[in-house]
Predict the 3D structure of the following.
Amino acid sequence: MELRYHEAAREKGCLIVSACGYDSIPAEIGLIHHLKHWIAPCLPNSVDCFLQIISSKKFVGNTGTWESAVLGVSSASDLRKLRAQSRKSRARITVPGAPAKKPALIHWNKHLSLWSVFLPSADSSVVRRTMSTAASGAPPSIAEEEDPNLAPVAYARKLIYMPVHFGVYSGLPNIFSVLCQMWMGLWVMCLAMFAFGRKLLLRFPEFFSAGLFQKGGPNEEQVAAARFTMWFVGKGYSDSTMATASRAVQPDLQITTAVSGPEIGYITTPICLVQCALIVLSDRRSLPRGGVYTPGTVFGTTDLQQRLEQNGISFDFLSRKSI
């Protein structure tokens, strides 16, 4: 959408914002909330996001989500080409300090007491696109275009999204949950590339997902009993000069924040989508005139976090410690 329509949307003054549901509002606004706790001279280097879905009842996903995952994996090569093409026109993200570490596929997170499985989530791509836009100079709002005295607002928009290494993981309570997710992932990776394999995956979702997805999805009781938490564990420096030294040292400071709320698909997604729409309707002049953008770029300096909090989604500071 961005590659095909961004320039036309800019010319026509048409604002198009992607990923305004659970993907990727909690990740985008949650990261902005997290970065606000890195107050100078502190400087973040990496932020890892851990997603856990908790329910007092057995919770299953809808086959619509399952189908999206299967077809997404089958189109992975096309997506890689599109992203590579998109990166050519984007500013390179430079993160001060230690280089990014290769994500571990599975590891025990002692800090959160959870098993963590690397998640090739859309959130990672969306967040990186927002960072790249900020690095190249965030687009001015309509009001800023008409009044040059408002330029400091654009500068503030650029500052709220400091560049960091960002990764997303599933947070799982036990090794059985890890095995279920690995079972599902292996089947999807092996079969989604072939037409016959996709037919099998879509016909028997309950078997291939180890019961995590089923036709008909969750019932109302299951939806009401489910909640999510996204932990943002950031590592960085207590003094920014440590990151800019000739030989950057390893981070010495860790900050943890969290976003939590009701069930992600049927409750949190509509909350996010409606609140984004209300901001567009009520505060259009504070947003870019036109273009195809990520939610962090468009809503990062608005009151979206406060609106979400008023509708049952929490943003919390949890801890700060030396490492």
